[in-house]
Amino acid sequence: MRTDPSILHVDLDAFFAAVEQRDKPSLRGKPVVVGGIGLRGVVSTASYEARKYGVRSAMSTAEARSRCPHAAYLGPRFEIYRLTSQAVMAQMRALSPLVEPLSLDEAFVDLSAAGLSGLTVEDVTAIAEDLKAAIEEASGGLTASVGAGTSKLIAKIASDLDKPNGVVVVPAGTEAEFLAPMQVTVIPGVGPATAQRLSMAGVRTVADLQQLDEEELVRQVGSAHGTSLFRLATASDDRPVVSDRETKSVSVEDTFETDIIDRSLLSAIGDRMAHRVSERLQKAQLSGRTVTVKTRMHDFTTHTRSSTLAGPTDDPRVIARVARRLLDDSDISGGIRLLGVGVSSLADWIQDDLFTESETEDTPIDLVELPERPRDRQVGYYPGQDVTHPQYGDGWVWGSGRGRVTVRFETAASTSPGPVRTFAVDDPDLTKLLHQAEPAEDAETTEDAEDAQAARSTEAAHPSGAAESIGVARG
DNA sequence: TCTGGGGTCCTAGGACCC
DNA sequence: TCTGGGGTCCTAGGACCC
């Protein structure tokens, strides 16, 4: 066990909202809510001004709007947050080489790795104040709250006690009494379900927890959880600060504004998600063996289907193919509100493509998958088709019918959905992008003839014949 | 107008092998 | 023919975190 409070936990105050207030001076001092702004959005971060009205993280945006109608409601700008986060993390790394980021706005810093020892409460307080000043300077005015103690648990809990813009250092040797009066839910990992079980055993505070013996705790909440909870409650937490934790999975998911029943539309969306997962795997130089498809029903019940390949892949076609098969095995009757595609069992190397053949052996799937035949061919658009518009940029067809086509615009790099707009099918501004998947027999119009031509040239560029069914022309 | 999106870790059961 | 244990891998679901 450490003998001085050398672990810091740094937590940026209302991070997303604070960045927006930094970049838009008119929002300073006003309620700001960052999160999903659609029908089914939830709040990511509320500024302190908005919290006065009861707006909280994870609350539905609809409820937030009713509590604080005059707040500014903003969609998240993750790229900006990421850059700001990097600048902040750099300040911590300047203090100590051992920094463990937990998210964009939180990190542990181990001062002992900086060669600092025998630290008093006054020493650590001064270090924390200096760090806060450096963070404020480097981030363009963001404040942080810092907790310090002899362990991660103590530092983490301490950083929450004087928010925003505070510093709390817990002296070595006082940990158990520091924790004792607190509710068990202050311990990270104790959520509603565990709290409920513990309360049935008469445990509400950490002091209650400290009275329980380990075997009893394991009986209540299971082996792993019970053991770790017992250690945390008695403040015997010697978990190290770990600077590079490996990624275990990569996934993309989307909740739809309204439930989707149409299988061909879901397949097209699933293909897109597979491509985005692949892009992120490739960027991180990762590949994985297990593909998972997640569906959430109208009643919020959630199901996953997964399939493990013989070797790792980052190939969008392979991920899309497996995902499509898993989705075909899923019950979507009644419609689904969410679809997700993920890859896990990650390796930092990519096996040759050989395994792919054996994987698909028992479930033959055409290398070039065409979207199912559109139900409404006379409109000339089908779900998933790539289009472009001079004003809105590149997008893809979300749905069509009755002489109109609905398009979702999003940039390839963005993970968040863009705007959805509806056009007349003969709108001259809406152009079909060259697309592999358009069946050749439909090459009646000039555009379609170009499509067929493009399909052939795409074929030439992919001698395997395995051009993506979706997204060929996307930048 | 209920309930996001990105993750991590754990459990439990079945298959399969020794 | 019956009875078994242990280990590993895979799958599905759940709790939890920011």
TrEMBL record:
Mg(2+) binds at D11, D105. Binds 2 magnesium ions per subunit. The keyword Iron-sulfur does not apply. Its EC number is 2.7.7.7. It is found in: Cytoplasm. Residues 432-475 are annotated as: Disordered. Its cofactor is Mg(2+). Keywords: Cytoplasm, DNA damage, DNA repair, DNA replication, DNA-binding, DNA-directed DNA polymerase, Magnesium, Metal-binding, Mutator protein, Nucleotidyltransferase, Transferase. The record marks F16 as: Substrate discrimination. Pfam families: IMS, IMS_C, IMS_HHH_1. Signal peptide: none annotated. The active site is at E106. InterPro entries: DNA/RNA_pol_sf, DNA_pol_Y-fam_lit_finger_sf, DNA_pol_Y-fam_little_finger, DNA_polymerase-Y, DNApol_IV, IMS_HHH_1, Rev_trsase/Diguanyl_cyclase, UmuC. NCBIfam families: PRK02406.1, PRK03348.1. Poorly processive, error-prone DNA polymerase involved in untargeted mutagenesis. Copies undamaged DNA at stalled replication forks, which arise in vivo from mismatched or misaligned primer ends. These misaligned primers can be extended by PolIV. Exhibits no 3'-5' exonuclease (proofreading) activity. May be involved in translesional synthesis, in conjunction with the beta clamp from PolIII. Monomer. Belongs to the DNA polymerase type-Y family. This is DNA polymerase IV. It comes from Kribbella alba.
